[in-house]
Amino acid sequence: MAEQPPPSPSELLRMVTELRQVVAEENQRMEGEQPEHNEDTQKNIENDDQESSPGPFMAEVMNFVLPRRFTLPTTLTPYDGLGDPKKYIKKFTSIMIVNGASDKVLCCCFPSYLDGPALDWFCSLPAGSISRFRDISKPFEEHFAGSAIYLHDSDYLNTVKQGQHESLKNYMTCFTKIAISIPDLHPEVELHAIKSGLRPGKFQETIAVAKPKTMAEFREKAKGQIDIEEIRQARKIEKPHYKDDDKSRDSKKNFKPIPRYETYTKFNTKSDDIIKEILNSKLIKPPRKAGNYPDSKGTDQSKNCSFHQKHGHNTDDCVIAKDLLE
């Protein structure tokens, strides 16, 4: 026969709860069947009860029988002494109350969600010191208050920066994960931090001009940029891989720039005159090799580009010049 796999932590928790419930019910049944005791016998029983202390819980909690249909939630990770204890108490109580837990149920089940140093702390509590959940939640929060120092505050957001080659989507995901873990984070502080963390570039300039006043407005602007980045990334992946022979063959071909726009603005003045005026006013710089392009064999000497300062094509037909004028 194949060996059964060991039970998961959640299954163990359920098994412990069910066993505890069975034991409590059996104890109640046996108490009802016990004959009357004389004074000496009763004193011996009381002494035995004191020697075998039930732990931090008082008898009324220890002997409490969990509802028959109650099951321990398995979505909560046990607290091991790290993290904000107040947050953990809030999460524990909210999950348990949704499942119909009473105050005594909270008391009985809370130790099942402690581990490591936290469980050791619980076991060290004075015997019979817990009669309600508040008796355990408040000391718990006070004892592990120092663990909250491991959490980030709003100042930490200013250290989150977009990497040189990091996508905007990844940057915003990392930023958001940290932001949601900061208690009472002011929206304006969050907005300022995420804008400050953008790397220099076109999107940062867009945000500087648009001046979004809320995180919702910022996300709306970011969504368009993220879509553009993902389209570019998809094109890179789909780009065919050429063999070395193909690369050397392609490198010998004349470079033909691809138009950036489908349609271009029609000006009353010739593009040639506009380009000359722009170059003279030094609003843009000509190409580095302007005026030094070697004329290859078959170059049409009747055509001249004022932007490239070379023969072979007219300024009106120059794709790069037309892109600059848009």
List the helices and strands and how they pair.
Blueprint: H1 9-33, H2 39-51, H3 59-62, H4 85-98, H5 103-109, H6 117-123, H7 134-143, H8 168-179, H9 187-196, H10 202-210, H11 215-238, H12 244-251, H13 271-280, E1 304-305, E2 310-311, H14 319-325
Antiparallel strand pairs: 1-2
Q: Descriptors for this entry?
A:
mainly alpha; Non-ribosomal Peptide Synthetase Peptidyl Carrier Protein, Chain A; Retrotrans_gag_dom; 326 residues; 3 domains; single chain; two-stranded antiparallel ribbon
How would you characterize this protein structure?
Helices cover 49% and strands 1% of the residues. The protein has three domains: 9-31 and 51-148, no CATH class; 154-238, Non-ribosomal Peptide Synthetase Peptidyl Carrier Protein, Chain A, CATH 1.10.1200; 271-325, no CATH class. A two-stranded antiparallel sheet has the order 1-2. By secondary structure, it is an all-alpha fold. It contains 14 helices and two strands; from the N terminus they run H-H-H-H-H-H-H-H-H-H-H-H-H-E-E-H. A hairpin with a 4-residue loop joins strand 1 (304-305) and strand 2. It starts with 8 loop residues before the first helix and ends with a helix. Residues 20-56, 234-255, 285-312 are annotated as: Disordered.
